[in-house]
Automatic annotation (TrEMBL):
<dbReference type="InterPro" id="IPR044528">
    <property type="entry name" value="POD-like_MBL-fold"/>
</dbReference>
<keyword id="KW-0479">Metal-binding</keyword>
<feature type="domain" description="Rhodanese">
    <location>
        <begin position="374"/>
        <end position="462"/>
    </location>
</feature>
<dbReference type="InterPro" id="IPR001279">
    <property type="entry name" value="Metallo-B-lactamas"/>
</dbReference>
<dbReference type="InterPro" id="IPR036866">
    <property type="entry name" value="RibonucZ/Hydroxyglut_hydro"/>
</dbReference>
<dbReference type="Pfam" id="PF00581">
    <property type="entry name" value="Rhodanese"/>
</dbReference>
<dbReference type="InterPro" id="IPR036873">
    <property type="entry name" value="Rhodanese-like_dom_sf"/>
</dbReference>
<dbReference type="InterPro" id="IPR051682">
    <property type="entry name" value="Mito_Persulfide_Diox"/>
</dbReference>
<feature type="domain" description="Rhodanese">
    <location>
        <begin position="269"/>
        <end position="360"/>
    </location>
</feature>
<protein>
    <submittedName>
        <fullName>Rhodanese-like domain-containing protein</fullName>
    </submittedName>
</protein>
<dbReference type="Pfam" id="PF00753">
    <property type="entry name" value="Lactamase_B"/>
</dbReference>
<dbReference type="InterPro" id="IPR001763">
    <property type="entry name" value="Rhodanese-like_dom"/>
</dbReference>
Length: 470
């Protein structure tokens, strides 16, 4: 028996390759499925099943393509009603895989079709659970994403999740291994641990949601408390996972069309496409196509695209480092952005050589920023999360989290110069690009972000109770 977790850091997502005696099951595959197929072929094994724990909201799964390419049936749990052929497992239904058995345990609550897959080894002993978004390490799946589909409140879904955990998962032995669908950084939970594998026994000790003496009322309160609004693209990904999507090869062929500067400019004007610059922030600051949006491949690329562009149907034109065009299109497709129309051949250098207008971002060092603070009052906007800001921030700075920057546009000065920063420079450059695309050019980025600001000795404020923030 072989179990391999295939973890994608950008999405904080875990897919799983399980093999026994020449037969393979894939759980929650990513959009690009060739790695799973190549791995099985290399082991002289056949993919027998594609298991889905639920209809994912934060990424588009590769279940349809993988099933088409291998002939393996797709398996969902009870209550799933996809628009394509699939096995809808009954609670407790067993699936033989070589010498092992995979059992579908219906664990509704995150969504009503959510299912945990229990793996029993060659001797019939409970070995591991693949929990999807039902149980994370340190947390559980948020219960507010499926309210509309389930016609239930988040409190009702949370109560359902409480029952699922206590009747299906907590009775299992402490040595059972927990393999979740996500880790720290995912928007599908609140307090996930950085680890991606643990034992159920340790989770019973560490995870607040598995406290033995916890009442259902206490569980509902804790699980629903402090939930931030989900990204706007989540329901669109659910729809694609449930109803279907284009093949990844079609998307790659369309998205990797090279365009000359003239053709690129014409396409942008004719289609209303977002010009997405995925280079490093240090390159974007020196020069970029006017009104282009920066979201660099080097950071949490796909989630930020989903959070800030939101509409998966939005046409996109790419400016990418040479050789990174296919990677960018692939990573966009992971979160459902399939409408990439091509990329700027020769990159930004070709745009400049063609004599096209370009823009820059004014950026200063943390020391220069510190000097400006000492010389008088200057507006400062911190685009980190509220939790980061509350912990420590520049004196008198305003908190305008990047995820909700469009809600804060009226707060930025229209004429006076202001400074913007994040933790290290990535998010503030995204913010700067969005502000400039909206005609707000009187900004200065602080290179290196709060880390550099603090090292420079600028005045900062420690913890402030959130209720006192304005």
């Amino acid at each position: 028996m072989k179990i391999e977790q295939i973890y994608t850091g950008c999405l904080a997502q875990g897919a799983y390759y399980i093999e026994s005696n020449g037969e393979v099951a894939i759980i929650d595959p990513l959009r690009e499925v060739k790695p799973y197929m190549e791995k099985a072929a290399g082991e002289n094994a056949k993919i027998k099943y594609v298991f889905e724990t639920h209809f994912h909201a934060d990424f588009v799964s590769g279940h349809l393509t993988l099933s088409k390419e291998t002939g393996a049936p797709i398996v969902f749990g009870p209550n799933a009603n996809p628009s394509f052929d699939a096995i809808i497992a009954k609670d407790g239904q067993e699936f033989k895989l070589g010498d092992i058995t995979i059992v579908a345990l219906h664990t509704p609550g995150h969504t009503m079709e959510s299912t945990t897959y229990l793996l029993r080894d060659e001797k019939g002993k409970d070995h591991a659970i693949f929990t999807g978004d039902t149980l994370f390490l340190g947390d559980v799946g948020r219960p507010d994403l499926a309210q509309k589909a389930a016609d239930m409140t988040q409190e009702q879904l949370a109560a359902t999740l409480y029952d699922s955990l206590r009747t299906k998962i907590m009775p299992l032995a402490d040595d059972v291994i927990v393999y979740p669908a996500h880790g720290a950084g995912s928007a599908c939970g609140k307090n996930m641990m950085k680890e991606t594998v643990d034992t159920l026994g340790n989770q019973k000790k560490m995870n607040y949601a598995l406290r033995a003496d916890m009442t259902q009322k206490e569980f509902v309160k804790e699980v629903t408390e402090g939930l931030l609004p989900p990204p706007q693209y989540f329901p669109l990904n659910v729809k694609m996972n449930k109803e279907g999507y284009e093949d990844i090869d079609t998307i790659l062929e369309r998205g990797t069309q090279p365009l000359s500067p003239e053709a690129f400019e014409a396409a942008a004007n004719e289609t209303g496409a977002v010009v997405l610059d995925v280079r490093h922030q240090d390159d974007f600051v020196k020069g970029h196509v006017p009104r282009s949006i920066f979201i660099g491949l080097s950071g949490d690329f796909a989630p930020w695209v989903g959070a800030l562009i939101a509409d998966v149907q939005q046409p996109i034109l790419l400016i990418a480092p040479e050789g990174k065009e296919e990677e960018a299109v692939t990573r966009l497709s992971r979160v459902g952005f399939d409408n990439t129309l091509g990329y700027l051949k020769g990159g930004f250098d070709a745009w400049k050589k063609a004599g096209k207008d370009y823009d820059t971002v004014t950026s200063v060092s943390a020391n220069a920023f510190k000097k400006a603070l000492s010389e008088g009052k200057v507006p400062v906007f911190d685009v980190r999360k509220e939790s980061e800001f509350v912990s420590e921030h520049v004196d008198k700075a305003a908190n305008t989290p990047l995820s909700f920057i469009n809600d804060h546009l009226a707060e930025f000065p229209s004429d006076d110069t202001f400074y913007v920063h994040c933790a290290g420079g990535y998010r503030s450059m995204i913010a700067a690009s969005i502000l400039k695309s909206r005609g707000i050019h009187n900004l200065i980025d602080v290179a290196g972000g709060f880390k550099a600001i603090k090292e420079a000795g600028a005045p900062v404020t420690d913890y402030v109770c959130p209720s006192t923030l304005k």
